[in-house]
Write a structure and sequence with these properties.
mainly beta; ten-stranded mixed beta sheet; globular; 31% strand
Length: 632
């Protein structure tokens, strides 16, 4: 049977088979009906120069099918899709299908998956849809994604959804900036605090001195000055306008509902650099999906969505009134705003931005007290809170306060700041393609329970994914419940729970002054690929020694976040790693080929926090079969 042609509907920004347009039920700005039934579909996308109007500024940008964001692509699990992408730009482009499991040649990463799409050319992607849920797509060329080249993907499951809802909206977040991506990168390289509009002033010093004394305030200023950084270095980029489905706060994207209906909101963070804290005052949100995978429902008042993550929530407004969808940037410098309403034109009160957080010395690579502890060890008896052995963690015994930063070798490994007390020259990061094996350990006999598998889900005040006391510790508005990674439990495990065959440590490193970001002190241009063997199960250990939060994204394979829930650990495509924390994830290596692995902050990835992953072997390969046997 010939594939159904997909027609772009500019009113809804959705892609439908032509035969389904008559049956589509249109809501306010987004379609409510998902494509279904087709076993093959053909879609056409163009990459174009567009005009982006945020309501606060207008600029030229890049989009799909003449708009930014691009269309919502609606697939059906089990169908085979053909997507023709035509490049109408004067430069190379690409399209990456974020979170989709597909052959690596179709992944859309220039110089890894394929060369890219030249100006005037059309590249045809073909791959099966083997999953369901909420995902997105974007350019993986230069800074085209920050400049507007992104869109949403909604995949209907073969079977019935495990939860009920009456309406369905995509809420795609972005951080549009008046400057182009290339210009932003040049400015950050020239002056890393170029976009920091929250500089500390003399009056702030007086406030600190009044609160904690002149001596401690002077010491604190001296420590930050020695590192040439500021407590306000939470967001690399400020001065942006947050968008919901391409609309700024003043343009007020609106989705309609009838009182009592259950409304599914598919949140996608397509920002270049911005984490958002999401809440809908007056409504509880039931989280039902994370990164496209169903989770056991969690009722929350607020959640933080990292760059490139997706969360699906269900709300049930009972009253005939508007509700504000509100997303504060993590640094409290801007907010996204939309509305759920019973009729167009309605609006509700918009909350004020909360007080901006400040980084603490505990965020500075974990050298200052409890904030630097390995939080993955919390909850399974290794050491109670407050009894942290920093020497055993490679941080040395010298606390941050009083440290003579002038004697630290910041030039080592390309300008990255080494972890205190650690001789990097003796660290063998080249072994196993940049991986660090566990010295002296028979990995087949590893006690994974001691590494976080047995950590109870209820950790009380000890959240292993946010540093307690940190300026970045999330706090829900009005004392409500804030979603933690520890709350996420898979509804149905995707893989059998088994021990990992080996561990790879990835230290997240950087130098803010020079605006260099890297992994294990080595930027991408100088790094060897990470080599994995088809059939093995690899445990990745992220050690964040920087003051920034990094959303780490592995292409082509699922990331099983170890949040202490054992076989119910959630499956994701992005794992966010907060400052001064250690987070584990595991991967079933089931996709041969070459893949990208990187921080999804656009300017961090471009600056070097990026790796190529090569999966060797495959079905029928003797080496792969042996690896699978070792993995059990």
């Amino acid at each position: 049977m010939a594939p159904a042609f997909r027609k772009f509907d500019y009113r809804t920004h959705n892609m439908y088979p032509a035969k389904m347009l008559r049956a589509a039920v249109l809501g306010s700005g987004l379609a409510l009906a998902a494509a279904g039934g087709a076993q093959a579909g053909e879609y056409n996308l163009t990459v174009d120069e567009v005009t982006i109007d945020t309501g606060e500024f207008t600029r030229s940008g890049i989009g799909f099918n003449g708009a930014s964001p691009g269309p919502v692509l609606r697939f059906k699990e089990g169908e085979d899709v053909t997507i023709n992408v035509t490049n109408n730009l004067s430069e190379m482009t690409s399209v990456h299908w974020h979170g989709l499991i597909l052959p690596y040649q179709q992944d859309g990463v220039p110089k890894i998956s394929y060369p890219g799409i030249a100006p005037g050319e059309t590249f045809t992607y073909r791959f099966p849809i083997t999953q369901s849920g909420t995902y997105w797509f974007h350019s993986h060329s230069g800074f085209q994604e920050p400049d507007g080249a992104y869109g949403a993907i909604v995949i209907a499951p073969e079977d019935r959804e495990p939860y009920r809802y009456d309406r369905d909206y995509v809420i795609q977040l972005a951080d549009a900036h008046p400057h182009s991506g290339d210009r932003i990168m040049r400015n950050l390289k020239m002056m890393p605090d170029y976009y920091n509009r929250k500089q500390r002033t003399l009056f702030d010093f007086f406030d600190d001195a009044s609160e904690k004394g002149v001596g401690p305030a002077l010491d604190d200023r001296s420590d930050w000055g020695s590192m040439r950084m500021m407590p306000t270095d939470i967001e690399d980029l400020q001065g942006f306008t947050p968008l919901i489905n391409g609309k700024g706060p003043g343009q007020n994207w609106t989705g309609l509902f009838k009182p009592g209906e259950r409304v599914r909101l598919r949140f996608i963070n397509s920002s270049a650099m911005t984490y958002f804290d999401i809440r809908i005052p007056g409504l509880k949100m039931t989280v039902v999906q994370a990164d496209g995978n169903n989770v056991q429902p969690v009722v929350v008042d607020e959640f933080r969505i990292a760059v490139a993550e997706t969360y699906d929530v269900i709300v049930q407004p009972q009253d005939d009134r508007p509700y504000t969808i509100y997303g504060e940037s993590m640094g409290r410098t801007a907010y996204a705003r939309g509305t759920l309403a019973t009729q167009m034109g309605m609006a509700s009160a918009v909350p004020e931005l909360r007080k901006a957080p400040l980084l603490t010395m505990g965020d500075m690579a974990g050298h200052g007290g409890m904030d630097g502890m390995d939080h993955s060890a919390m909850g399974h008896g290794a050491k109670p809170a407050g009894e942290v052995d920093h020497a055993a963690m490679g941080h040395g015994t010298m606390p941050m306060a009083g440290m003579d930063h002038s004697k630290m070798d910041h030039s080592a490994m390309g300008g990255e700041k080494p972890m205190a007390g650690m001789d990097r020259s003796k660290m063998d990061h080249s072994a196993m393609g940049g991986e660090k094996p566990m010295a002296g350990m028979d990995q087949s006999k590893m006690d994974h329970a001691a590494m976080g598998h047995s950590m109870p889900a209820d950790n009380g005040d000890a959240d292993p994914f946010y540093a307690p006391g940190s300026g970045l510790t999330p706090t829900a508005a009005d004392g409500g419940r804030f979603l933690s990674y520890a709350d996420l439990k898979a509804q149905k495990p995707l893989y059998a729970h088994r021990p990992a065959t080996r561990e790879i440590e990835l230290e997240l490193t950087g130098n803010m002054e020079r605006y260099i970001w890297s992994i294990n002190g080595v930027k991408y241009a100088d790094a060897e690929p990470i080599r994995l063997q088809y059939g093995e199960r690899v445990r990745f250990k992220f050690v964040n020694t920087t003051m920034m939060t990094h959303p780490m994204h592995l292409h082509g394979m699922w990331s099983i976040l170890d949040n202490g829930n054992g076989k119910w650990n959630p499956v994701k495509h992005v794992v966010s790693v907060a400052p001064a924390t250690t987070v584990y994830m595991e991967t079933e290596v089931d996709a041969p080929g070459e893949w990208a692995f990187h921080c999804h902050l656009s300017y961090h990835a471009d600056s070097g926090m990026f790796r190529k992953v090569i999966v060797e072997g495959g079905p029928g390969d003797d080496t792969a079969s042996a690896a699978a046997t070792r993995g059990g």
